[in-house]
Amino acid sequence: REPYSVITDQSPPTIQAQCAQCKQATELRTCLHCDKALCADCRTKHHLSQKKEVDESLRKSMTTVNDLINLGQALNISRNTRIETYKVMKTKVSTHSQDLIHSIQEEEQRYQKQIDEHIQSETSKIPITEQEVQHLQKHKAAISQVTDTYEHENNQMILTKMHKDYMNMTPVWTAKIESEAGRLNPKREEV
To answer: Domain of life here (predicted)?
Structure first.
């Protein structure tokens, strides 16, 4: 109301002149809207026209503001709904991740146990295989000795007797070698 406090029913002062609107000579006042000198009737019509325009503008502004307020409130309601949904999702993700971690830890323990069992099994086989290799080394030494003796013997009678003894011993040696070969079978090592 402050900028309008100097305006009264008697201001601006009247003048005698021709109305800018209806052209009638009478008492006129200058319109504070359009700065034209208007008679009382033309000022009233002009005022009503301006009032209608201002009222419409204010109504549109109020409608726009109310629509924006409603939109803002609706947006915040939607945001709050999404926030609650996100909180539920966050809880579910946390729970699911804990379940996954627990499941992974159980799998890890299961695999670690299996690996430990394989290590123990492989470790227990090493001394047995070393023992088999020692037996095979003895067989190799015996075969080398027989071969060396057989190759360096010139007496045919001795060679014939050696041949007979060797042929009698061959099934025993072969059985022992095949038995040890069975225990050293790489196919049995497949995991």
So the answer is: Eukaryota
